[in-house]
Amino acid sequence: MDDDSFYCLHSELCKTLANPKRQMILDRLRDGEVSVGEIASQTDIPQATLSQHLSILRSRGVVRTRRAGSSIYYAIANPKIITAFDLITDVLRESLGEQARTAGTDESEKAKTA
Amino acid sequence: MDDDSFYCLHSELCKTLANPKRQMILDRLRDGEVSVGEIASQTDIPQATLSQHLSILRSRGVVRTRRAGSSIYYAIANPKIITAFDLITDVLRESLGEQARTAGTDESEKAKTA
DNA sequence: ACAAGATATGCGAATATTCGAATACTATGA
DNA sequence: TCATAGTATTCGAATATTCGCATATCTTGT
Fold first, then answer.
1. How far is the CA of A19 from the C1' of C13 (A)?
2. In this predicted model, what pLDDT tens digit does every residue of B62-101 receive, in sequence order?
3. Yes or no, beta carbons of B108 and A61 under 8 Å apart
4. What's the gap in Å between the CA of B95 and the closest CA on chain A?
5. Judging by DSSP bridges, how do beta strands A63-68 and A34-35 pair with one another?
């Protein structure tokens, strides 16, 4: 696999995580499998929209599915996804905390020296 | 901060990583700070495009900058970003390896039972 | 076979991202 | 101050994402 393909696949995977509704869904799945109906009742995501997002998560291999009767249970396919998710949460938190201190040190902030 | 805001900020951060060119850039920065010109010469990204992506990385706090003469050096702001990046690489690799074995077990693959 | 509950898909409009070209800004040296 | 190297911004067109609606599919119970 060449570098370009790698970066494309990698960013496809990141894109899959880069949506508030899909993050909401993943957060519901972090403690184990949950059915579509359960996710729908725990969030304010309309059923069709929810199904579309689940379809995206499925197609990228982020979640796996199991049918039980007429319900379909979704689960995180690889726990490392959750670890990455939480790591980004850390970065976000640290970045928010640091924002006050480092505001204005950016080299592109030319207005400050004018 | 309410949940919606959190998921939005989190996915903003993920979106920042979810682009092949920005991943290429981050990969160049993983061993320490590099100037814009150096990144430009190591990749095939045109200068204007490169600068736009750097601007996005800057605005989300993913990188920090330092001016040295007429050059501007970019560096990863928080090493956890790289850890998350590598974790997603793991997921990608494991997912690609597993693809052959689990192909067709998806509940949405109805065609198989027809 | 039929009805009902649970989930998935197709489509179109609104919105967001991406890129290249042109241009502007900043610092250094003559 | 002027020229030049290095970097940033603006703008417009092409493309991709997102969402809601309508509808289709699948499964179970009768």
1. 20
2. 999 999 999 999 999 999 999 999 999 999 999 887 655 5
3. no
4. 7
5. unpaired
* A8 contact residues in B (CB cutoff 8 A): 20
Give the burial string for A49-82 (b: 16+ CB within 10 Å, else e): ebbebbebbbebbbbbbeeeeeebbbebbbebbb
Identify whether the C-beta of residue A24 lies closer than 8 Å to the C-beta of residue A39: no
Give residue-wise pLDDT tens across range A56-66: 999 999 999 99
A60: closest chain B residue by CA: B95
Mutate to test the interface with A, among B3, B5, B10 (most CBs of A within 10 A): B10
Query: In DSSP terms, which residues pair with B66 in a beta bridge?
Result: B73
Q: Which residue has the tokens 């989300």?
A: B60
Domains with residue ranges and CATH for chain B: 13-100 (1.10.10.10)
Helical (H) or strand (E) element with A68: strand A63-68
| pLDDT score of A27 more than 80 | yes
Model confidence, pTM: 0.86
